[in-house]
UniProtKB/TrEMBL annotation:
It is a multi-pass membrane protein. The keyword Glycoprotein does not apply. InterPro entries: Mem_transp_PIN-like, PILS1/3/4/5/7. GO terms for cellular component: endoplasmic reticulum membrane. Belongs to the auxin efflux carrier (TC 2.A.69.2) family. It comes from the Eukaryota. The keyword Nuclease does not apply. PANTHER family: PROTEIN PIN-LIKES 1-LIKE, PTHR31651. This is Auxin efflux carrier. The lineage of its organism: Eukaryota, Viridiplantae, Streptophyta, Embryophyta, Tracheophyta. It is found in: Endoplasmic reticulum membrane. It comes from Gossypium raimondii (Peruvian cotton). The chain crosses the membrane at residues 6-30, 73-94, 106-127, 147-166, 255-275, 325-347, 359-383, 395-416.
Length: 417
């Protein structure tokens, strides 16, 4: 296929995304108010807890086998590489633009975490639906595409709510310890644990000044023969309390998101032959369960894309964020990451780590070219830090992604064929 033919194949899915995103943006307008803040909140919960996990579980259960794991194992590694490379580029961007401290965690989140959920679920299967797609027969391509995109969504959820959440929370804590006013957790549920954390001032690895002060106090208050032992015991006890308070702040429900758990269930069903034969297939005795869950998963893509459009409405507000930061994030996500992604996937192909499936390699490359994950905006709301700035960044990065995704998808297919 020629470059222009591939460009047309790549353009159609992006147009679909733009159209549905535009509908979501329209429904969120104040004059329409069908996707206002309350409606978005309820719909997002339904997608997060019901529709998304159902889609992930059924797609992986239908298409994953024990033999396919030989190839699929590289996708979690590839996603981890996208986060690490994005974080390194974000660190350089922070140094170059001198990003304010309260925005540094958000910049790292935007550069490291791509939208690994709904965009691959739309773009990759839509490419397969085109009659002149380069990946072979449409039905087989479509089935594999949904499996790859579902695995991307499930794995991405784990990394976003562990890796990115941890980084952004760490930057928020450092900003607070510097004496700036940040309300890390505004929920009434965690107010008691937050007040307990306020009393935990000693660092896990104490500074020289803290050690010197504690030594001086111990010399004055304790007998010469016992002060050293009691000082060590007290320090260990305080550090253990700090670690305990910190662990209580980690929300395992977010780290192990429902889509991630559903992915594990889908893998288990697909790879264990007796269970697979019971649930999956036209002759399976319990196929009604699989069919029902499949129906629940069907609205996922449309609802998620409508929510993306509705959330972008907040980016139309004014903010004091410097244009250089926005341009830097756009450059990282739309120029440097895709170029490095080509190198990573080509190197993995040369080493025989990704098999020969061109569609799988296309998905791996695509993961480097996606705009920032919407979950980053959610985290800024959790930490009450950089909400308006993140909305503007999301708006501009998704506007640019409408063009860059088309171009990079074309380039990826051109390199693979």
């Amino acid at each position: 296929m020629g470059f222009l033919d591939l460009l047309l194949v790549a353009l159609i899915p992006v147009i679909k995304v733009l159209f549905i995103t535009g509908v979501g943006l329209f429904l969120a307008l104040d004059r329409v108010n069908l996707l206002g803040p309350d409606a978005r909140n309820h719909l997002n919960k339904i997608v997060f807890y019901v529709f998304g996990p159902a889609l992930v579980a059924t797609n992986l259960a239908q298409t994953t086998t024990y033999e396919s794991l030989v190839t699929l194992w590289f996708m979690p590694v590839n996603i981890l590489l996208t986060f690490m490379i994005g974080s390194a580029l974000a660190w350089l961007l922070i140094k170059i633009t001198r990003t304010p401290k309260h925005l540094q965690g958000m910049v790292i989140g935007c550069c490291s975490a791509g939208n690994l959920g709904n965009l691959p679920l739309i773009i990759v299967p839509s490419v397969c639906e085109e009659s002149n797609n380069p990946f072979g027969e449409s039905s087989t391509c479509f089935s594999n595409a949904q499996a790859y995109a579902s695995l991307s969504m499930a794995t991405g959820a784990i990394f976003i709510w562990s890796y990115v959440y941890g980084i952004m929370r760490s930057y928020a804590n450092n900003y607070k310890e510097a004496g700036l006013t940040i309300n890390i957790n505004s929920s009434q549920k965690n107010s008691n644990s937050e007040s307990d954390l306020e009393t935990c001032r000693e660092p896990l690895l104490p500074s020289k000044d803290w050690v010197a002060a504690s030594d001086e106090y111990s010399v004055q208050q304790q007998p010469h023969g016992n002060f050293e032992t009691q000082e060590k015991s007290s320090a260990l006890r305080k550090r253990f309390q700090c670690i305990t308070m910190t662990m209580k702040k980690i929300n395992l429900k977010e780290v192990f998101a429902p889509s991630a758990i559903a992915g594990m269930v889908g893998f288990f069903i697909g790879t264990v032959s007796p269970i697979r034969q019971t649930l999956i297939g036209a002759d399976a005795p319990l196929r009604v369960i699989e069919n029902s869950i499949n129906l629940l998963g069907d609205p996922t893509v449309a609802c998620m894309t409508l929510l993306v459009g509705a959330n972008l409405l907040k980016g139309l507000t004014r903010s004091d964020i410097r244009p250089s930061i926005i341009i830097g994030i756009i450059a990282v996500r739309n120029v440097f990451m895709p170029l490095l992604g080509i190198g990573v996937v080509k190197a993995a192909q040369h080493l025989g780590l990704v098999g020969t499936d061109a569609l799988f390699q296309f998905v791996l490359m695509l993961q480097y070219a996606l705009p920032p994950a919407m979950a980053v905006g959610t985290m800024t709301q959790l930490f009450q830090m950089g909400q308006s700035e993140s909305s503007i960044i999301m708006l501009w990065t998704y506007v640019v992604a409408a063009f860059s995704l088309t171009l990079w998808s074309t380039v990826f297919m051109w390199l693979l064929f």
